[in-house]
Known about the structure:
It is a single chain. This protein is an alpha+beta fold. It contains four helices and four strands, in the order αβββαααβ. The protein has a four-stranded mixed beta sheet, covered by helices on one side. Strand 2 (48-57) and strand 3 form a beta hairpin. The radius of gyration is 15 Å and the shape is globular. The termini are far apart. The model has no long low-confidence stretch (mean pLDDT 93). The structure holds zinc ion. Zinc ion is lined by residues 43, 46, 48, 70-71, 73-74, 134.
Amino acid sequence: MSADAARRDELRELYRELILDHAKRPRHFGTLPNATHRARGINPLCGDRLDLQFRVDGSRIADAAFEGSGCAISLASASLLTDTVIGLEPSAAMRYFDALLGRLTGREAGGELPELGKLEALEGVREFPSRVKCATLAWHALDSALKNGQQTVTTE
Length: 156
Ligand code: ZN
């Protein structure tokens, strides 16, 4: 095995563990008493159902939480999302969505995109279009919540 392949395997294993960790012990799981923005995400194909809530305070996302049930990928993605967007301006949070979508679907968003950081763990689903929906469900809900205040999004 080449050093590159070994490194890739190591990274894949690390990412797998990160996904499982977030799925088993989701961060910011629960409800937000004073949420200002909220959206539900439904992915009928897999059975993922997420309810995301955000508190936007001034120009920043002061807090985020989610509830729901679904596969490990959808839960880990929602957990990573809350970890990522708290403290960000909504527009900055959406740049992460652009960056993630670009990485998973090849759809290029223009402009400067942030480094994915931990979100790179979701990259493994790229080859599986049905799993891409699991990985992006929470992000579509975030998009909808920030744009419309309250909404249900579905992947179908
Ligand atoms: Zn799923």
